[in-house]
Amino acid sequence: MGSAVIGNLQTGHVGLNVTDLERSLPFYTQVFGFEVQARGEEEGQRWAFLGRDGRLVLTLWQQGEQAFSPVSAGLHHLSFQVDSIDEVKAAERVLRELNADFRFDGVVPHGEGMASGGIFFSDPDGVRLEIYAPTGADVAPAPSGAAPTCGFF
Fold first, then answer.
1. 100 Cα distance to chain centroid
2. How many whole angstroms separate alpha carbon 79 and alpha carbon 151?
3. Which terminus of the chain, N or C, has fewer Cβ atoms within 10 Å?
């Protein structure tokens, strides 16, 4: 069986089911600085398109009936890269004000001896999220040792 020949492939946007759009929308706009690009308010069809700099990044669909399950097949976690650990720490401060649920206390590296790393937390529905920087996280021990931190939270 052959494989498709596809040039310049990249992720478009990520769609998440949420249980309460009014609760999730402020979380994502405050933590990530997303702008609401479009929104649907009809009963049974509530949604929001979120982006930055005119680019669609995330769509929220009020279709979830229960919180995210980390033991079901499907999404493991959603990760966002920023340029610096200072940006990660700024996001951490906002998340603490929002009383977000953190997996680890503060910035941690992706693995033992690695410079990349960040924060690992959950959204209001329990979806696992990560904000990381490529360097600057090697000031703390890796919580999973040599195993990828992002794989075990």
1. 12
2. 11
3. N
Q: Counting Cβ atoms within 10 Å, is residue 45 exposed (0-12), middle (13-18) or buried (19+)?
A: exposed
Q: Which residue has the tokens 């040039």?
A: 7
Residue 89, CA atoms < 13 Å, CB-side half-sphere: 6
pLDDT tens digits, residue range 81-94?
999 999 999 999 99
Question: Is 126 exposed, middle or buried (CB count within 10 Å of its CB: 0-12, 13-18, 19+)?
Answer: middle
Q: 37-45, long-range: CB within 8 Å, 24+ apart, which pairs?
A: none
Condensed to tens digits (0 to 9), the pLDDT of residues 103-133 reads: 999 999 999 999 999 999 999 999 999 999 9
106/69 Cα distance (integer angstroms):
23
Q: How far apart are the first and last CA of the chain?
A: 36
Cα–Cα distance for residue pair 106/98, rounded to 1 Å: 15
